[in-house]
Specification:
The chain is α+β, with helices and mostly antiparallel strands. The protein has three domains: 3-30 and 165-306, Alpha Horseshoe (Serine Threonine Protein Phosphatase 5, Tetratricopeptide repeat); 39-160, TolA/TonB C-terminal domain (2-Layer Sandwich), CATH 3.30.2420; 311-388, Jelly Rolls. Helices cover 37% and strands 26% of the residues. It is built from eleven helices and 17 strands. The strands form four sheets. Strands 1, 2, 3, 5, 6, 8 and 9 form a seven-stranded antiparallel sheet that branches. Helix 6 (187-198) runs antiparallel to helix 7 (205-222) and helix 7 (205-222) runs antiparallel to helix 8. The longest helix is centred in the last third of the chain and has 19 residues, at 288-306. The two termini are 18 Å apart. The relative contact order is 0.14.
């Protein structure tokens, strides 16, 4: 789809952006007294998606054989789940956050190949989350009477201190200083103040969410689509939920964030993410107006996916050396590689494969494998194009 369509959508949506923000944002709340009990919780979204054996070898050509959809499948069932250990230093400082990771359950019910997809808070949360998930045990998935692997994605572990909510006086003062710079039009000064705040090692979930919100507005003013989309994604992960009555921003603001994220993801070529956010928005109450506003863009995305044009996603690998993307087509390739790419792992509903990366080679994924996510490993700052190839 042409770039100017997304730019037009961004301009149209942004015309009411600042009024929406002012109307829907809650005010900062002073933190309650720190509770004496500390807990760490792990919330996992269970997916019933089996995987065949991983063939860890480099393939020069697409596989010719087709993998049939599994007809007799029983998903893995949890036997033992170990909560992540809350890092002691983070507890002392009141630091909160989360880790999102994906993993595979092998034929013996063990967790294999856990990967951190994103996190916010102390880096020690990543180590704790990985250590915990590796100890999880399952009754393995069964395929045609035999144990099989099963893929899991989008598992978030939250590190939260019970009884702690709101912001400290120190945070409120520093935040308002940054916000005043932003409102005065000095975006660079606001960004510098934000970066200083993000470096604090005492931030709780409430403060995290407010900082991510400010970062999304700063990135929007700077025209940094990647940063704004990441900030909104992390904001939604930090915000809490209606179910647990711990939301920082109310549902209307969450709906706004989803609407904004759909537009940004459409512009970036992250069509699967845009469609996922749209489904979440559709499930929310009293959001018919926003759903109607964004529906034409969703139609354009669906038309692009079905078109005979290749879909190109420009990528720069981050400092962790990993990049994740959910595919919307069954063929993909790499182009314009600037730097070093090591491997690409394809995790699908019913299969998993790992390859080395060859530029201009087209990978063909059998439709029977279901929806697939690619995980690309390479040097940080490596640039390339992920091309979702049109049919034909």
């Amino acid at each position: 789809m042409k770039q100017d369509l997304w730019k037009k959508a961004l301009r149209t949506e942004y015309s009411a952006h600042e009024n929406i923000v002012k109307r829907t944002q809650p005010s900062l709340v002073l933190a309650a007294l720190l509770a004496t009990g500390f807990t760490a919780s792990a919330a996992a979204q269970e997916l019933s998606i089996p995987c065949d054996d991983l063939e860890e070898k480099a393939l020069a050509e697409s596989k010719a054989d087709e993998v049939e959809r599994i007809s007799a499948f029983t998903p893995a069932k949890p036997l033992k789940r170990v909560d992540p250990k809350y890092p002691s230093q983070a507890i002392r400082k009141g630091r909160e956050g989360w880790v999102r990771l994906s993993y595979v359950i092998d034929e013996e019910g063990r967790v294999k190949d856990p990967v951190v997809e994103d996190f916010f808070g102390s880096p020690s949360f990543k180590r704790s989350a990985l250590s915990a998930v590796k100890k999880w045990q399952y009754n393995p998935a069964i395929k045609d009477g035999e144990p099989t692997q099963q893929c899991h994605q989008a598992v978030q572990m939250d590190f939260a201190i019970s009884g702690k909510s709101g912001a400290t006086r120190k945070f409120i003062k520093a935040y308002k200083d940054a916000e005043e710079c932003f409102n005065a039009g000095d975006v660079d000064a606001a960004d510098e103040a934000l970066k200083e705040l993000l470096a604090w090692d005492t931030l709780n979930r409430y403060e995290n969410t407010w900082l991510l919100n400010l970062e999304s507005h700063i990135a929007s003013k700077q025209g940094d689509v990647e940063r704004e989309a990441q900030s909104l994604t992390r904001l939604l992960a930090s915000n809490g939920s209606k179910r647990f009555n711990n939301m920082v921003f109310n549902e209307d603001y969450v709906a706004y964030a989803l609407q904004r994220k759909i537009i940004l993801d459409a512009q970036r070529g992250y069509y699967a993410e845009a469609l996922k956010s749209y489904t979440t928005l559709q499930d929310m109450e009293a959001q018919e107006k926003r759903i109607g506003e964004i529906a034409p863009l969703i139609s354009q995305i669906e038309e692009s996916i079905a078109s005979e044009q290749n879909l190109t996603v420009p990528v720069t690998i981050g400092s962790d050396g990993n990049w994740f993307h959910t595919l919307v087509r069954s063929k993909f390739a790499f182009g314009n590689i600037q730097g070093e790419l090591d491997t690409v792992e394809v995790r699908c509903d019913t299969h998993r494969e790992k390859f080395t990366v060859a530029e201009a080679h087209v990978w063909q994924i059998p439709n029977s494998w279901g929806q697939c996510q690619v995980m690309v490993k390479g040097d940080s700052e490596t640039k390339f194009d992920l091309i979702e190839v049109a049919k034909g």
